[in-house]
Design goal:
By secondary structure, this protein is α+β, with helices and mostly antiparallel strands. 30% of the residues lie in helices and 28% in strands. An eight-stranded mixed β-sheet has the order 20-15-14-23-24-36-35-32, with helices on both faces. A six-stranded mixed β-sheet has the order 4-3-2-5-12-13, with helices on both faces. It has a four-stranded parallel β-sheet with strand order 7-6-10-11. Strand 14 and strand 15 form a beta hairpin. The longest helix has 28 residues. The protein is globular, with a radius of gyration of 26 Å.
């Protein structure tokens, strides 16, 4: 791979921070360098800086593209800022009431995570707007004058402002923001973040942004100051990159930062292999992220993280707590459980020799011989198989079985959790897995992808080059995007509806383009997409369709989704969305050499199906285009290991991608 640019330096560094490792891909003058360094959970920026010091040539200008889990972890661990929420008097509890849905359908007493803002930290003020933006009650000057003091006396670290119907008229929120600005705290204003209807989702999104803003601002500020990069860009949850300053102000857009890069990268390599319909399968150290791409990444705004809805555009990714570092245990009923608890980067799996004492999925693979002891990180490090024996024996004794059976059981339980996730995004949404190929990546993806492809009934499996670094690669091929939206509630029957829609779209596009130009994009490179969230009048939810011929498009989309259409029913444009995109640097992939003979291999022993069988080991760097190998096979490389079971065949294409298929 190499970036094609004109003028400035061609050095680009992509960094993806994971739970166990931080991955770096460095492109410089047509050359590629890769690196994995241990993550530093207590200070995530340190791992990034450590990697930069090792991989970047001193004094060389470079651009930094970064995918971060800092915002995500802050929400999951509930260690974000103390937020004061300012809203309309009488509506302080919107964030707690929510939608009144039951999180556990059959529980007599359900449990819901508490809101991110305590009841005493929700401030109600006088003033009210109507749904069309008309003023029903003016703001109270005394409320505004004393607002900063009320916020400060609560020890706030960030402020969220969400008033009724601010999507139709932002004047009240702007006035409240001006009054709150005296505190000198980070402000999150709903009309700037999510100018859309649905008070609960808009308020929740604004609160989430405020909750993670201080920690993200500090984290990204440190990277900007200390990384030495000429430009810092952050991967957004919607699959597009955003400038670092915007990420500091609107960190809610980074909650799926790393996984989004993986989906974009997986689809990019699949297209090179001639495959358009894929299921991305990203198995890392702490979790597995899966996403269905029927020719394109699917996006959604119905996204929830740590129990908090966030109405931002994200790639539709489903996550389960099963990764290479997931811990195995026997529960009180004697059943084998795996995850969601993880060994993480500290201390990590037992075989890493860093103090781990509980058996992980990685330890199970080492014991089974599928993860060779002497090939970790390309042979730069070794794994301690014997250290796994004692803790694994405890699990085997608890199950009344052998060490090998216990290890295979751990892998099987993890497979079951991941298979369930894959079915959620495919079968349960009406897609036939037989129409898709599974793209396996992440440090542990290659160890499980064959078994999961078989269980799912998918077409075949693909393993791109450097699978453990694919999320970082995806950031390199992600466009820079800016999405603007506004709720309008315009019926197709209104005489001036086309004029109204065109005017709003023009405003949204102008705002997005101006911001992109200020961030350094070239005007001639910008392209725009227009989308409309539409519904039949009276429906509770919308379908997103292209703006051109949106009424016909909505009827068609409704029939495809629900099986019927209502041609005579009035259609309503609820929310308009304009997406302005600037292309990423063009990356050229170099074809691998053609095979002129079989690759060098060596024998090994692997446990499969309760038996120890003969298998073959091969380095991926020795594979060439046209090579065809039969399982059982262990393919070793720097960023990951691929396990090819008996009955499976692997073919190498012209770009170096591995194609795994079962059967004759």
């Amino acid at each position: 791979m190499s970036p094609e640019r004109s003028g400035a330096s061609t050095a680009v560094l992509a960094v993806d921070t994971g739970g166990t490792f931080t991955d770096l891909v460095y492109l410089e003058d047509g050359g590629v360098k890769t690196l994995k360094v241990p993550s530093t959970p207590s200070d995530p920026a340190q791992a990034v800086l450590n990697g930069i010091a090792q991989i970047v040539d001193g004094g060389r200008d470079f651009a930094l593209l970064h995918g971060s889990t800092v915002a995500t972890n802050s929400l999951l661990e509930r260690n974000g800022a103390r937020v004061v929420l300012v809203t309309n008097r009488g509506f302080e509890d919107v964030i707690e009431i929510g939608r009144q849905n039951r999180p556990q359908l059959y529980a007599l007493v359900g449990h819901r995570l508490p809101p991110l803002v305590d009841r005493d930290d929700r401030l109600g003020i006088a003033g009210r707007l109507g749904p069309s933006g008309e003023e029903i009650e003016p703001l109270d000057a005394n409320d505004l004058a004393g607002l900063a003091a009320r916020i400060q006396e609560r020890g706030a670290q960030a402020v969220a402002i969400s008033l009724l119907h601010s999507y139709a008229n932002a004047e009240h929120e702007n006035a409240v923001a001006e009054a709150a600005r005296e505190c000198g705290l980070p402000l999150s204003v709903s009309s700037e973040l999510v100018p859309e209807f649905r008070e609960y989702e808009r308020t929740s999104t604004t609160v989430v942004n405020a909750y993670v803003a201080p920690v993200m601002s500090q984290y990204l500020g440190r990277l900007s100051d200390e990384a030495g990069a000429t430009r810092v860009t952050i991967m957004g949850s919607n699959g597009g990159a955003i400038p670092v300053e915007r990420a500091r102000q609107e960190p809610v857009h980074t909650v799926l930062s790393g996984p989004a890069g993986g989906v974009v990268g997986a689809l990019s390599w699949a297209r090179r292999a001639g495959v358009e319909q894929i299921i991305s399968f990203d198995m890392g150290g702490t979790s597995t992220d899966v996403s269905l791409c029927p020719g394109r990444p699917l996006r959604t705004r119905e996204f929830e993280i740590a129990g908090q809805p966030t109405a931002i555009p994200v790639i539709d990714i489903h996550t389960v707590g099963a990764g290479g570092g997931s811990l195995a245990r026997i529960d009180a009923g004697g059943a084998l459980r795996v995850g969601p608890q993880s060994a993480g980067a500290e201390p990590g799996p037992i075989c890493y020799g860093q103090g781990g004492s509980a058996v992980t999925v990685t330890d199970a693979h080492v014991w089974l011989g599928r993860l060779p002891e002497d090939a970790f990180l390309g042979g730069a490090s070794t794994l301690d198989r014997e250290a796994v024996r004692g803790p694994l024996q405890e699990i085997a004794d608890g199950l009344g079985t052998s060490l090998e059976a216990a290890a295979e059981g751990i892998v099987a339980v993890a497979d079951t959790a991941m298979e369930r996730a894959l079915r959620v995004i495919s079968v349960e949404r009406g897609y036939d897995p037989a129409d898709f190929s599974v793209v396996g990546f992440g440090g542990a993806g290659g160890l499980h992808v064959a078994e999961l492809t078989s269980r799912l009934g998918a077409l075949k499996a693909l393993i791109p080059p450097d699978p453990g670094l694919l999320s970082a690669y995806g950031m390199l091929v992600s466009p820079v995007t800016r999405e603007m939206s506004r709720t309008v509630f315009a019926s197709a029957e209104e005489p001036e509806v086309d004029v109204t829609i065109a005017r709003v779209f023009a405003d949204l596009e102008a705002q997005a383009r101006n911001e992109m130009l200020e961030e350094g994009a070239a005007a001639e490179d910008l392209s725009t997409e227009r989308w409309i969230d539409a519904r039949y009048r009276g429906q509770s939810f919308e379908l997103q369709v292209p703006a051109e011929d949106w009424v016909v498009g909505f009827h068609d989309a409704h029939e495809e989704r629900y099986g019927y259409r209502r041609e005579q029913a009035p259609v309503e444009a609820v929310t308009l969305r304009a997406i302005v995109t600037a292309p990423p640097p063009t990356l050229t992939a170099t074809e691998v050499a053609r095979a002129d003979g079989p690759p060098p291999t060596e024998p090994t022993r692997v446990v499969h199906g309760g038996e120890t069988i003969d298998a073959t080991r091969v380095w991926r760097s020795d594979l060439a285009a046209g090579h065809v190998l039969e399982g059982p096979l262990v393919i070793q490389e720097y960023s990951g290991t691929t396990w090819v079971p008996p009955g499976w065949r692997v073919t190498v294409d012209g770009w170096g991608t591995l194609h795994l298929e079962s059967g004759p």
